[in-house]
Specification:
This protein is mainly alpha-helical and 132 residues long. Helices cover 48% and strands 9% of the residues. The longest helix has 26 residues.
Length: 132
């Protein structure tokens, strides 16, 4: 999976959107993370699509695990009786840095984060202009 993650970062920095990256990976027949988990025999609880989504790509691009950091506490169970969970805000995550070998360099991760912020700002500006 490391080469796929590296390719996702490269494609994003080359100018492709999360949606376009997902379409490309799906067309290449690269299994999604949920398909990989299912192949390893992990119970996912629900059926997922074989297509890469822009949300999955976005999560990969924002995940500090690829920097070599361990991240815990990203979600919590709503009830101990059910499998339902809810995501917690980033400021509540527990991050321990440099626990394993990094797949992505800090500079690349920072460049992606900066580009995502710029695209978000541009979309906000465009939607404000359309509403005026």
């Amino acid at each position: 999976t490391a080469p796929v993650v590296a390719e996702i970062y490269d494609l994003y920095l080359s100018g492709l959107s999360c949606k376009m990256i997902g379409e490309r990976l799906t067309a290449q027949g690269i299994p999604t993370p949920s398909e990989m988990k299912r192949a390893r025999g992990e119970d996912l609880g629900r059926r997922s699509s074989a297509a890469w989504s822009k949300g999955t790509i976005r999560k990969i691009l924002q995940n500090p695990v690829y920097l070599g950091h361990m991240v815990q506490g990203k979600e919590e169970k709503i009830s101990f009786k059910e499998k339902k969970t809810r995501e917690l805000p980033r400021n509540q995550w527990i991050v321990v840095e440099h626990t394993h070998e990094a797949i992505i360099k800090e500079e690349i991760f920072g460049d992606v984060k900066k580009r995502m912020a710029e695209r978000r700002l541009a979309r906000t500006r465009i939607s404000k202009e359309e509403n005026t």
